[in-house]
Amino acid sequence: MCESRGPGDNSKEDNGRRIEPGTYPLATQAGGKYVTIGYTGAKTPPKPGLELLKTNKRTEILIHPGVNFLSSVGCINPTKKVSGPLSDMDFTESRTCVIALIDDLKTFAGGGFPKSNGKRIPNASVVVEGEPVLSTESVEIVLEAVAGDPNKGLPAAVFQKFAPRPASGSKRTIYDGYIGAFTSDKGLKTLGDHGVCNNYDRLMHFFAQAAMETGGFTLIRESLTYTTVAAIRNAWRSRAAGKTDQWIGDNLLRKPQALGDWAYGGRMGNVKGTLDGFNFRGGGTFQTTGRDAYTAKGKLAKVDLANHPELIEDPQTSLLAACAEWKGSGCNAFADAGLIKKISRAINVGNANSATQANGEADRIAWHEKVFKAVKNAGLLG
User: Fold this and answer.
1) Which uninterrupted H or E stretch holds 150?
2) Which of 47, 156, 248, 299 is such that its CA lies 20 to 30 A from the CA of 141?
């Protein structure tokens, strides 16, 4: 529930009182009715609240449970008048949501959480990309997510807890693309169609694997532009063992297509001496690699990745391919049983029963622990 303060009369319909796009720093709220420090959960003051500090034309945005006036019931931009008094409305659920948000921020900020009202919460802000920021429908979606409905997937805020959003640059753009796909209606349908949204165990295992493969959702295609011999040796230890530093430097440094053919050519379905190794390098949510894998996942997802491997760079397409692989490999059942090693080997090795460990198997377990903690702290597990 939000109230936007600024120019205009919030009680009039079509008042144009919209929240401007921008980054709003979060602060503890100081006020007579709503406070962050010292609130009670009851209907009488002081009630729980938070404040988004001013930006552009808005003087402030308040987050609170609401009372018997229009602006506090999630109707920032009313299109019609509300008939009758609102004094009999029950705000118990919204109070619970606001308190949960405050508790979540306390966990996020740790010892840096302000000890008094009216203070900025360190490193906490809300990005508003458009307007209006909340409609009746979106408020319902938020409430359902807080209540813990796996069919709604994971909220963007939960992703940011276990895989923080990059501050800027191309990695932030890639991150936003992934999270936008994962939380969109289309993305949720894809997840649901493949059984991933049936329960939180599946969601947590799925996104732990995705986070591992993409470096916390910051990698859309494997980079083959290496600038040091040491980096190439570290990435392909056995393959580089028989090559001199001089050879590697002359033939592979800053030559992504040549490196692709050297590293991947002649295997995984790639034709040696062609651009296959480069074109079918790691890509997408599960970093699909090799012509054979692109072809197989493309068939499962009904996308022509064999002839158009660049399509894996579209977050929605890569999510579809990942979900198809996940379901086709039996990972839903593995997730239900908590068999993370089988999941890891199914996704990374291509065989759940492989004796070969997945690349970074211990890291995959660590990612799952981080996802579990974020989901649990968000109250989604009940």
Assistant:
1) none
2) 47
